[in-house]
Structures are given as structure tokens and as C-alpha cells.
Amino acid sequence: MFLFRFLIFLFFLFPSFSLASNQVCRPFFSFPKNKVSAVYAMKAMQNNLVIVGSEGKQNLKNTFLMQLNSKGEIDSRFGKEGLHFSFGSDEEIHGLGLDHTGFVMAGFFKNHTRDFLFVKINSDGNLNSTFGKNIFSGQNKKGELHYIDQNDSGWLAAGFSHKLGKSDFSLVRINAEGGPDLNFGYQGVVTLKHGSKDHLYGVTTLSDGTIAATGSALNKGKENCVVVRLSKKGELLSSFGVGGFVFLPSQGQGMCAAVKEDNQHRLIVVGFSETAKRNTDFFIARLGLNGELDSSFGHGGIVLENIAGIDSAHDFFIHPDGSLDVAGEYQDARLKKYGFVLLRLDSEGKPQSSFGKNFIITCPLAGPSFVNTLVETENGIYLGGVSQNLGVVYSISP
């Protein structure tokens, strides 16, 4: 499904936008046009925005880590152009975590080894040479890691591993020193097999210490959104769905990109669902910890929203009152409408009409766009992703 999304969005666009609402959407940061780049993850740190991604030539990219101030300017403490690293090969960093000592990143090498990759950068900007091994040498040699989450014992990352043309769900947990957490799975790695195309894109550690992850997997011949729940040790929880798996309904193909727990201990996932006309809608679902859809949310636990034609949600923010901000992109190739989009739902999944224009804020752009990450602070709302093969961040006033 990851490849399916990339085929849909062919990466060409840049600023041409208008907005008919009280909130203002504007470009906040973008990379120079002479290099291919992408913003994969962002975190708020005090008054700064920390962003991570890749930059370089089409088939050979380096990792960047930058801090942006409230004006979208690069914080000079990491140099005028931020930090740029190369770990000996073409790599992609998709996950970013922060603690009081620095930044922990998770990703993968894109060469033939496809090794998992963990890196720690100290708060002063130097590579932490004592942080385990850069290449995670667990039981899975080939794969991708797409998200990282902090927990009491260290860091948990989710993705998938490759073997003989098939892919399996993979979760990797490392301790604070960067070594494999031997209390999790086999040597820190859990591999789950359901079908031939199993992908995880989001993961979170729940308040009771158990784990929820989401992505896509083949189910009755279609790729659908899947939610998985595991124990602290990485064992599937039989009390969740069927054997620890829940597949969420879709007319056609479906995929989920992010999962979080709300303050009522319910799971929320977002992604996209294909409709009968082969368009895709924003897909938002809320489940109990037993895997059953929450009937008090949306229609039977699910909200579908269509903005233009081919729409996909990739990240979201939960407000203290239970309302949701959901970020993604929209595309109507026939009418040539494209852009980033943010919508707000109340705690029951109903449109919050006071937000934007009929609960939606759009940032119209010149071509297909791709949102990877959402951050909300007192200063504003930030959407990071790709625009015309350039890493970009757009901001919306709070």
C-alpha cells in the first residue's frame, strides 16, 4: 500500500494557495529547489520545531535534522543549514523521538541490505557514538521502519520486513542505550505474519504498557486497514479482535497510517478508504481496547470524509476535550485541485463547523501533495511533507 500511495501522488507542486476562512494557511519552510528532499517527521521542542527527513540526489540521499524557530528560520545552533548526516549509504529516516539528552531517529537503508537503522544525536548536535549500533542486527535483515514511540524502557519502532518477495509486520524495541530490549520478542524484534503484504506505519505504547500498531494487510483479497495489539513483551493479545488483529471495513482498498490512545483509553486510527468509484476518502475510526468499533463515534465507529476525490489522512492530534485535528492531502486530477488539508471533528466524530470553512482548512497547491506529519503548538499548527519533490512545512494559525 505504501507503493500504491506513491503511484497516486507523483510529487509535483508548489505554492499557489488561497483560503476562505478565519485561519490562515501559509508556507512556513521549504528546501532549495536544486535538491530532492522530503520532511518525514516533526516534533515540538520548547519554541522550536524539530524536523527530520532526507535531502540529496534522486537515488542517493542524506539525513537532515533541523530546528526551526517560530518564524520558520533555521536555528543556527546546528549550523546555517542544520545538521546533515550520511551513514555510508542511501538511507531514509521516518521516525523521530525526543528526550532530555537529544534526538533518536529510526529508519532504514535503501540499498540491497535494507537494514533497520537507529541513530541518536546529542542535544549539542553531535552523533552519539555510545548509542548501540547504528544498524540494528536483529533477526530481520531487510525491512523498513516508519515510526518511533518512546516508552518506559526505551524506544519502540514499527515497520515491516522483507523476505522472498513477501513482507511481514515488524516491531523493534531498543533500550535507552540503543541495544535490543531482550524482554521484547526475540532479541528485541517481533515479526508477525498474517498474509503476503503486511505493513505497519504507526505504533503507540498505551497507558497500561501494552502496544497498538496500525498499517495495512491483505484481507480477503484486498489491502485493508489493520490494527494490532500486543502485550508488553510483544505477544499478540487474544482479547483484541481475532487473535490480536482487527481489520476495519472498506469498500475497496484501505490503509491506516497513525494510531493513538485518547484520554478515555480508546484507540483512534486514521488513513484512507477506497470508495466504489475508486476514489479515496479520509478514514477515521475509534475502537475500544477489545477491538470493537465505538458506536458513539461517527457511523458505527467510523468517519469517512471526501474533500476532492483522492484524499488520504496520515496524522492527527487529539485535543483534551476529545476533538480531533486530522491532516492529509487531497487531489482531484480532473479539476486540477490539489493540496494539504486539515479537518476538525468533535469528540463524537461530527464536523466542528466553527473550524475553518465548514470544519475544513485547505492549502490549495499546484499539483499532487503528500503530508507525512502534523504538530500542534501554542504558536500554530504545522503540516510537513513533500511538494514538487521538495520537503516543505506549512503552518495554520491556531
Molecular structure report:
The chain is mainly β. The chain has one domain: 7 Propeller (Methylamine Dehydrogenase, Chain H), CATH 2.130.10.10. The chain is 2% helix and 52% strand. It has 1 helix and 27 strands. A 4-stranded antiparallel sheet has the order 1-27-26-25, with no helix packed on it. It has a 4-stranded antiparallel sheet with strand order 2-3-4-5, with no helix packed on it. A 4-stranded antiparallel sheet has the order 9-10-11-12, with no helix packed on it. The radius of gyration is 20 Å and the shape is globular. It starts with a helix and ends with a strand. The N terminus is likely disordered.
Number of helices: 1
CATH homologous superfamily label:
YVTN repeat-like/Quinoprotein amine dehydrogenase
Distance between the termini: 33 Å
Radius of gyration: 20 Å
Could you tell me the number of beta strands? Answer: 27
Please tell me the overall pLDDT: 86
Secondary structure layout:
Blueprint: H1 2-8, E1 25-30, E2 36-45, E3 48-57, E4 60-68, E5 83-85, E6 91-99, E7 102-109, E8 116-122, E9 143-151, E10 154-163, E11 166-175, E12 189-192, E13 199-205, E14 211-219, E15 222-230, E16 245-247, E17 254-261, E18 267-274, E19 280-287, E20 302-305, E21 310-318, E22 324-332, E23 337-345, E24 360-365, E25 369-376, E26 381-387, E27 390-396
Antiparallel strand pairs: 1-27, 2-3, 3-4, 4-5, 6-7, 7-8, 9-10, 10-11, 11-12, 13-14, 14-15, 15-16, 17-18, 18-19, 19-20, 21-22, 22-23, 23-24, 25-26, 26-27
Question: Keyphrases for this structure?
Answer:
398 residues, mainly beta, Methylamine Dehydrogenase, Chain H, four-stranded antiparallel beta sheet, 27 strands, globular, disordered N terminus
